[in-house]
Write a structure and sequence with these properties.
The structure holds 2 protein chains of 2 kinds. Chain A is α+β, with helices and mostly antiparallel strands. Chain A has 12 helices and 7 strands. The radius of gyration of chain A is 25 Å and the shape is elongated. Helices cover 70% and strands 0% of the residues of chain B. Chain B has 6 helices and no strands. The chains are: A alpha+beta, B mainly alpha.
Chain lengths: 293, 141
């Protein structure tokens, strides 16, 4: 616990340099001198084992286009106390609340439902709220999602991802049944079939991990194709609608861009078998093209 | 929004240590594919010596001194060519085995075992190549 407070003061000096308080020379010198000796003493007296035991290093990507001197992307180090059950998101919140309030990242529900805190953690796309610190090797390195433009710190521009998601018309379009009280029934088997694909939380981890999507801006991406799968495979939608959906998918930049690297399936925080769904849509597209009757 | 920062291709080959099985399979499949395309042209170049050789007198062909036979024998006498042949076999065998794996992936069979099937194709390739070494390198060294 003691190390945490020490780090706090250390960090404080770092952030204060920007708004360097104008002080008369003598007190300022005295203050700096005192601080220097204090830090020297601290380094000398600090038992190494103690830091290793209950804290860990959090390396966070920083970038702020609006503040001069922060426009150059860099990594900031934070020392965060290790707690049982701590997630990467918890650590980020700790760093923001205790060290640097300008640290920016999206988060909301903290339970892998909202899909706002997908980061590039230790070289892999993961949800911050779902990733336990104890599962990671230190130092924990948090970066914004690759292949998306960084707006600030860990916040990326999701506009392109949302455009691709909307391109597949991600909403139910089946006819409403006749009669006021008539229900639109789905068979159990059909529900089971599309169950996994409905889990998508629009976090963008799959799109970020796909290196085909990185090189091809027109590619729909795993998330959008999975979304299309969810509706194309839904029996409650009519056949013409399915045909319409397949027309969007059966294109060079649709399902056929997938080259089965399984990157998306590996990183999906909701364990959606994305590659499987894409492959099934490919077969579906072929079947439809081979239909002569 | 003021401006944003493009970090470029973060997941480039500099991160090869973190690549997963599916990624390696994709890279190796592309690589072996291009090697095979390249080999195809050298293969055609060597085979095309058969055209002038076919015009040679039957005595020359019987004596195995025609341009086709001498070209092949000349190539086979080089140790480098023998080693490259082993490499070619490795490339072809992996491409075939991974192609079968991709066939199953396309059919939606065993997608959960895609990493294992990649490792299996690597192991089988290694076994076949090692078994072929005595045949290919016989009497070169």
């Amino acid at each position: 616990m003691s190390t945490q407070i020490q780090e706090e003061s250390e960090e404080a000096t770092e952030t204060e340099t920007e708004t360097a308080p104008v002080e008369r020379e003598s007190p300022g010198d005295r203050r700096r001198e005192a601080k220097r000796t204090a830090s020297d003493q601290r380094v000398a007296s600090e038992p190494v084992g103690e830091i290793e035991g209950d804290t860990f290093r959090l390396k966070v990507f920083r970038y702020d286009p609006e503040v001069e001197g922060k426009m150059e992307p860099r990594f900031d180090d934070f020392t965060v106390p290790r707690e049982k059950g701590m997630t990467v998101l918890d650590a980020l919140i700790y760093a923001r609340d205790h060290y640097d309030t300008t640290l920016t990242f999206r988060h909301s529900c903290r339970q892998a439902v909202c899909g706002s805190d997908a980061f590039f953690i230790n070289g892999r796309q993961r949800l911050g709220c779902q990733t336990q610190i104890s599962d990671l090797d230190g130092p924990v390195r948090v970066e914004p999602l690759p292949h998306q433009d960084v707006v600030k710190d860990l916040v990326v521009d999701m506009e392109h991802f949302y455009d691709q998601m909307h391109a597949v018309e991600p909403f139910f379009q089946g006819d409403t049944p006749d009669g006021d009280l008539e229900e639109q029934r789905q068979s159990r088997e059909n529900r089971e079939k599309i169950k996994m694909s409905t889990r998508c939380i629009w976090c963008g981890a799959c799109m970020s991990s796909c290196n085909i999507a990185a090189g091809d801006n027109e590619y729909l991406g795993p998330a959008a194709i999975n979304k299309a799968y969810r509706f194309a495979m839904d029996d409650r939608e009519e056949d013409e609608l399915k045909e319409h959906r397949m027309k969007i998918l059966d294109q060079e930049h649709g399902v056929w861009r997938c080259q089965t690297q399984f990157s998306c399936t590996n990183v999906c925080p909701k364990d959606i078998p994305l590659t499987e769904h894409i492959q099934e849509l490919k077969r579906e597209a072929v079947k439809q093209n081979l239909k002569f009757w | 929004m003021s401006q944003s920062y493009n970090r470029g291709l973060v997941e480039d080959f500099g991160r090869w240590r973190e690549f997963t099985a599916g990624m390696w399979a994709w890279i190796l499949h592309k690589f072996t594919g291009w090697v095979l395309v390249g080999y195809l042209f050298t293969h055609i170049a060597v085979l095309s010596t058969a055209l002038p050789a076919s015009n040679a007198a039957s005595g020359v062909i019987a004596a195995e001194t025609d341009v086709y036979t001498t070209t092949l024998q000349g190539l086979e006498s080089l140790a480098l060519v023998r080693v490259l042949e082993v490499g070619l076999l490795a490339v072809a065998v992996f491409h075939i085995l991974n192609g079968v794996r991709l066939l199953f992936v396309d059919l939606g069979v065993g997608l959960e075992a895609q990493d294992k099937s990649f490792y299996a194709s690597l192991v089988v390739t290694a076994a076949i190549v090692l078994a072929s070494v005595p045949t290919f390198l016989e009497g070169v060294f």
